[in-house]
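Re-run with default settings, no changes from the original entry. Doing this only to confirm the output is reproducible before filing.
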Amino acid sequence: MFTTVVSLSLWTQPLNASAPANENELGEQTILRAVSSPYMEKDLALNSVLKELSDCESSGRVKLKILDTNNRYSYSKFQFQAKTFLSYGKKYGIISDKVSEEEIENYIYDESLQNKIAGKMIENGLLEANWVNCYRKMSEGAKEKYKFLLSN
C-alpha cells in the first residue's frame, strides 16, 4: 500500500503553543495538519496512473496526431483512436451521443475530455487491454495504484 498526504490545512497560533511548527516574522507559528479521505486517495492514485500513462504514450503532449501501425490516426496524450475515444466518451456520458466520427477532431484534443475518458476506462479495468505496451512499461508503483483503484 502507498501512503499519501492528500490535503493540508494551514493556521497560525501564538508562539509557544505545543505543536510542531515554523515561526513566521510576526512571531506566530504556522502549523500544518494533514487531512485524508478515501476519495482523495483514489483521485491521487488515478491522477498518478494517468500521468505515467500519458508520459509513456505521448510524453504528455496534447496536440499530437500520429499514424498508428493499424493505418489509423491516434490522437493526443493518451493516443486514442477516433472510434475508441468516441465510443467510450459516449458510453460514460462524457461526449454527446450526437457527436459523429467526422466531428471528433473538435473534441479529441481537449485534455479534460481525454483525462475523463481515460480515467473512466482505467477505473473500469481497461488499462491493460487498451494500453498494452505502456501498461507493461509502467512502474510497480503505478501498477500498485491501479490495483488500488480496482479494489475500491
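The helical segments are 38-58, 82-91, 111-123, 127-130, 132-137, 140-151. The chain has two domains: 1-36, 37-151.
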